[in-house]
Amino acid sequence: MVAHAEALMVEQIAAFASRARAEDLRQEIRALFKRNILDSLGCALGALPGKPFAKLREQFDAVGRGGRCTLIGGGQTSLDQAALYNSGLVRYLDLLDTYMGPAGLCHPSDNFGGILATADMVGATGEEFMLALAVAYEIGCRVTAAVPVMAKGFNHALQLALSLAAACGKLMNLTPGQSAHAIAIAGIDNISLVSVPKVLESIESLMIHGRRPDSSRTADVDEQKSSEIQSRLPKIPERCYGRGMGACRAADTEGKTRRAQA
Questions:
Q1: How far apart are CA 101 and CA 250, in angstroms?
Q2: pLDDT lower than 70: segments of the chain
Q3: Measuring CA to CA, how many Å separate 36 from each of 5, 115, 133?
Q4: Residue ranges per structural domain of the chain
Q5: Domain at 9-188, CATH homologous superfamily
Q6: Longest dimension (CA), the chain
Q7: Per residue in 50-89, pLDDT tens?
């Protein structure tokens, strides 16, 4: 990376991931991550009968399954196909975990499928897999807590790109400089807008009904919903689903800081 008087944020994230050690995971954090891993696997197993996954397997057969990365439910394929398939399984039932920040949210277990596939590819141990997952959780939740991504109109897929790149870089033993480049590339390529679903809704309405949704009514509803969410967010205690190396802190309605317990 280019030398700067102060490290760029992407370099700080890469350095954090590089410094992380298994010893940083205290027993209570390890217990949380064992629970989170089982929870993600439970979501994935429950989604196996879903039609998209049969179609994905058909596609993998059609294009070739060279690779040693395990598919949840059986079989092996390439790194990218396994990451897609396993991530889809964890996400499909929409029962995955959620981290609520002051101006947005993220789903830390969205990292699970990609990290599992990468760990499989490099032959990582269970402890190395758990540490990479902890790194991803910590980065994703910290970015969500510090940066109003959704309040600024962007989708929380941005945090996922940063956290997943950092965690996979750690599993692949990238140097901090290499990891920083990987994180930057992933971030630049995954800046999507919150408004994209509204565009898709408009297209769907045109296709089905031959007209656009009532934009004025939609705007009123969106504004009202946004105001309601913003008024409620500070009053909702932050729930920690196993953040990485640190404990999750939350401010209650009296403004006091407390640790969120699982």
A1: 10
A2: 1-5, 195-262
A3: 39, 14, 10
A4: 9-188, 196-259
A5: 2-methylcitrate dehydratase PrpD (1.10.4100.10)
A6: 60
A7: 999 999 999 999 987 788 999 999 999 999 999 999 999 9
